[in-house]
């Protein structure tokens, strides 16, 4: 948890510069000390103030006394056979959050968490099942990048080129930390705004706020259903911000300039992959010229949904393409290390805690809406803990 000291890693670059200038001036130090510290922070990405070796020892001690500079410690590092790397980070107060490095031939993407847990309760998501613990600070978001950047360079993965806020939590429900963290990553650490994607399940006020930023941060929307009623069974937030309201906000985001929206659609067998949903999804996407990612569902602890069959996913792709929508089927990454959002943490919790309350109710509701045979999708034992 943040302590009484100013958290240096949470301050956007101009605020960090001002705070450091005041600190060194009060100590009678030359003004170039500010630049020295900023270089260690943003360019060298050191983990501790002690590593700022061109500062006199007394100045490092004084900085340490005035500012906190807390990075998480790696609780677990899991490497997939496909190169995906998941870190389970332990924060200063013991909370656990995840980040994932995803290498592809042309980029290295880091997926960061914005909250410890999540209050949104999406029925398909491991993080949603485990509930909300607390908001992360901007420094705790950014330090996932800092620590992952060092890890990637030390292990031959190269530089992180892209960042997605798709880990644990709903970033637009933590806008107090999200906005400074975006500024830090972009202006402090030099990650291009178009290489940073904020993912949301549809927090409309947050989308409108993001639209007002002058930088071209990208937006991904977890759609997962093109009909409000079905969507509300998967994403409880739909009851507060309906699909209609969400689409209106996305039109505003689109008009604000030059940023293509991505729709994420996790394909769950017998739940949201009925053939009649594909043209509806295509209509929503084409109205915004949005890109669609079809994602074979990644099973999670506590419930037994399965990914749609490959043939059904291809049918969805064909319908979308035939209607002029740009679409990709995302290849699942890191399945052998539980790399989907919240899974590693959920697996840990599943091994030492009881099933979540209401788990059966949520599954039955979604199943009933989809009008399918529970046996077909293994919903006969909802909420069962994995063996
Ligand atoms: S999908 Fe995102 S918003 Fe929904 S419960 Fe999971 S982390 Fe939260």
Structure description:
- The protein is an alpha/beta fold and 387 residues long.
- It has two domains: 6-68, DNA polymerase, domain 1; 73-377, Aldolase class I (TIM Barrel, Alpha-Beta Barrel), CATH 3.20.20.70.
- Helices cover 38% and strands 18% of the residues.
- It contains 13 helices and 14 strands.
- It has helices at residues 13-26, 32-44, 57-66, 126-130, 138-154, 175-188, 204-211, 228-234, 243-255, 277-288, 310-322, 343-352, 359-370, and strands at 6-7, 67-68, 73-79, 85-90, 96-104, 107-111, 115-117, 132-135, 162-165, 196-200, 218-222, 261-267, 291-296, 327-329.
- The strands form three sheets. A ten-stranded mixed beta sheet has the order 3-4-5-6-9-10-11-12-13-14, with helices on one face.
- α1 packs antiparallel against α2, α5 (138-154) packs across α6 (175-188) and α7 packs parallel to α9.
- The longest helix is centred in the middle third of the chain and has 17 residues, at 138-154.
- It starts with 5 loop residues before the first strand and ends in a 17-residue tail after the last helix.
- Bound molecules: iron/sulfur cluster (SF4).
- The site of iron/sulfur cluster (SF4) has 13 residues, from α4.
